[in-house]
Amino acid sequence: MRGAGNKGLLLLSALIASATLFFSYQQLSRSTDDSGSLISLDGRTMGTGYRVLLQADEAVNSSVNTELQAAIETRLVILDKTIFSTYVPDSEISVFNQADQGVFNASPEFITVLQRALEIHRLSDGAFDPSLKPVVDLWGFGTQVGRQEVPSPDVLAAVFGLKGLTDIRIASNAGTVQKKSGVAIDLSGIAKGFAVDEIGKLLEERGISNFLVEIGGEVLSVGNRPDGSPWQLGIEKPVAGEAELLQPIRAHSEKMAVAGSGNYRNYFVHEGQRYSHIIDPRTGWPVSHELLSVTVIAESTMEADAWATALFVLGLEAGVRLANELQLAAYFALDNGAGIQSWHSDAFNRYL
Ligand code: AMP
Ligand code: MG
Questions:
Q1: Apex 239 CA angle, 234 and 243, nearest 5
Q2: What is the pLDDT at residue 59?
Q3: What is the DSSP letter of 52?
Q4: How far does the centroid of ligand 1 lie from the alpha carbon of residue 168, in Å?
Q5: What is the pTM of this model?
Q6: What b/e string do you get for 91-122 counting C-beta neighbours within 10 Å, with b at 16 or more?
Q7: Ligand 1 atom 15, closest CA
Q8: pLDDT of 238 strictly over 70
């Protein structure tokens, strides 16, 4: 059985004090809170849902909103279908993955995300590894969906041997990416966060200075709600099917970028054992430890997204240690048999 819900994680709900904001996905739905009105633009992208919340006075009127949503959707289609989707055979990433080796012209977006992925791979001592794509597929969490069994050791060893992020070289000035082997990559652990930042940029370019953008639980909030109070974000209780608040996040600045990673939604159960979609690059097996979720607050949503995945792979002890070393604000939810407990890095203190 697969975990309920979207393919993407909805680890972080944009918990916005008033429950009236939990309206269903609907084009251009309109809702009001106690003190002002909010516009919600929502739809689907990257295998999950997106939502943009705006103040009604900034969004002006419905024809402007329709045009704005069209611009948002156009941008998301480029990021998803044209660049990062491994499900679309002629997306940039798929073309890169299908080739044996060579030098490729790459979009600035592809280069930005891949470059940061390589850096976080290095900083996390290999825990964040997008070159696990063939392994993710083999376990049934990528493009070969539907598999729900443990692969044979021989097949797993063969596929595991294909990983090798260090076989990729980026020449950002030339706008090219080179690969020396048939390595294939899956940027699902970072691209949603990047897309959130890109939609944030699009809104700012249009002079909108109070908004919240969310894709599959990765959130960027800027400015305030219509009543002048900061957007209220929170960490969801890591239990599939429940949308309950585990920990509110204290808003600290004009801009908050928050992302999460967890194993409680996207998994399958085989012979009583749970196998989740996040793979340990040291073994090729789904990560299996007491952690249920990791939430990171960072400078950008891309950063938060990649680090949440990396720290989740590392587990509680090594994850907290690295987060403290790098001064990352990270919150860990776990179940060690005594119910849900939590731990956080030093830098997270200010958000409690
Ligand atoms: P996220 O939901 O951001 O934690 O990303 C999880 C997704 O990233 C998975 O569904 C896989 O597609 C991919 N992935 C799995 N394991 C890793 C890993 N160790 N490093 C980077 N990406 C991974
Ligand atoms: Mg991630």
A1: 50
A2: 60
A3: E
A4: 18
A5: 0.90
A6: bbbbebbeeeeeeeebbebbbbbbebbbebbe
A7: 278
A8: yes
Report the distance separating Cα 236 and Cα 181, nearest Å: 40
- The preferred substitution site among 135, 192, 277 for testing ligand 1, maximizing ligand atoms within 8 Å of CB, is 277
Output the CA 31–ligand 2 centroid distance in Å.
30
Q: Which two tokens stand for residue 47?
A: 């295998």
CA of 262 to the centre of ligand 2 (A): 9
Percent of the chain, pLDDT > 70?
Answer: 87
Tell me how far the alpha carbon of residue 189 lies from the centroid of ligand 2, in angstroms. 4
* Ligand 1 atom showing the smallest separation from residue 128 Cα: 20
Q: Which CATH class is domain 1-352?
A: alpha beta
Q: Indicate the residue type of 223.
A: G
Residue whose structure tokens are 């938060």: 304
Cα separation, 67 vs 69, whole angstroms: 5
Q: Does residue 32 surpass a pLDDT of 70? A: no
- Pick the ligand that lies closest to the CA of residue 310: 1
Pocket of ligand 1 (CB under 6 A): 9, 128-130, 132, 136, 141-142, 186, 188-189, 261, 277-279, 281, 305, 308-309, 313
Among 46-50, 73-77, 178-182, 184-188, whose mean pLDDT is lowest?
178-182
Q: What is the pLDDT of residues 35-86, one digit of tens each?
A: 458 889 999 999 999 999 998 876 666 667 889 999 999 999 999 999 999 9
Cβ–Cβ < 8 Å for 199, 43: no
